[in-house]
Amino acid sequence: MVSQKSKPLALPDTLRDLALIRASDIDLSAIVPNKDSTAPDDPEVFQSTQSSHEFVAETRAALRAYNSGELQKKNSELRKVQAELEEVLRGLSP
Prior knowledge:
4 helices; about 0% strand; elongated
């Protein structure tokens, strides 16, 4: 099983970015939405957000399955069974 660990951000790059934010006098609290704020009342926005969350969850699950190597094992097992069935069919043919 292949283990994929996420790489941490490079410390020098992170420190540089933080220094740039600090030097630019950006108020990060104005950028980040308030947790107490309510979701938009627009059902289309809500549905779109839900669809996006579902897509991300399904994509992550698919990538985990692909990276685990399990799919490759199943593929080779299916090919082996397929070859055996084709051999049985050739034996049954008159």
